[in-house]
Structures are given as C-alpha cells and as structure tokens.
Specification:
By secondary structure, the protein is α/β, with parallel strands linked by helices. Helices cover 15% and strands 36% of the residues. The protein has two helices and eight strands; from the N terminus they run E-E-H-E-E-E-E-H-E-E.
Length: 138
C-alpha cells in the first residue's frame, strides 16, 4: 500500500500548517468519483453514526455558511488538470477537533447513502493525530 498523502492548502487565517490530508487510497477513489459526479467537496459534521464520518458531496450540494469552517483546499487533478476539492467542518465539531490533524482514508464497507462513495462498497474514514504545538482558536 502506498503511504503517501496529499496535504491540503492552508485556509485558516494566521496558520502556516495543513490541518487535513488525503491518503493515496482516498485520492484514487476521489478521482474516480470526480469522473462520475464532477467537482466534489467534503463536510465533516458532529454527531453519531453517519454524522461522524466525512461526507463527500458534489460541490455545492451541501450548503456551507457561518456555522462551518473551511479546513483545507486540495487539487486532486493530474497532468495539469485542476480538480479543486474543499474540506469543511462544522464550527461546533472544530471546537472539539481543533488540536488534531485529520487524514481522510478509505475502508471497505457501506458509507452513508448521502455520500457519493456509498455505491462503491467503500467509505471514507477520518484518522486523527494530536498536534503538539499551540493552535490559535477560530
């Protein structure tokens, strides 16, 4: 298995580090889903069950607003073709996870019916690592 990952571009004011990454496996699945659905986005909300998994939607299908934080932007394109993908999180959830670096991975199983990977027999999963430096609050 390829352990390389793609780090998101920094989006939070005053920060100089990435908060979220994609594993090689998640990147491969996202490119396949992009071909099927067009531009994509992630939203991570709080809650239990499906609400605690990162949800992947066609870009703009999930409306974000003042109650959400843009944690990072990716370009998942290859060969010079841009394929931007944003990763959003609810502010409430960010308050709990603000000291963690998140990595989007893929595992076998059925995801939520609302997340575009659900028909692939795979689901996205967040793996988190505690950050060991001071993090400014949002």
């Amino acid at each position: 298995m390829d352990n390389t990952s793609l780090e998101a571009a920094v989006t939070l004011p005053g920060e100089d580090f990435s908060r979220v990454a994609l594993t090689a496996v998640s990147l491969e699945l996202l490119r396949k889903l992009w071909d099927q659905h067009g531009p994509l986005m992630f939203h991570q909300s709080g809650g239990c069950c499906d609400g605690s998994a990162p949800m992947c939607y066609p870009a703009g299908e999930f409306l974000t607003g003042d109650s959400d934080v843009l944690l990072g932007r990716f370009d998942i394109g290859t060969g010079g073709e841009r394929q931007p993908l944003e990763f959003w999180m609810s502010k409430e959830q960010f308050n709990y996870w603000s000291h963690t670096h998140l990595t989007v991975d893929v595992v076998p199983g059925r995801g939520s019916g609302f997340s575009v990977e659900s028909s692939e027999g795979k689901r996205f999963l967040i793996r988190s690592t505690l950050m060991d430096w001071d993090i400014p609050s949002v």
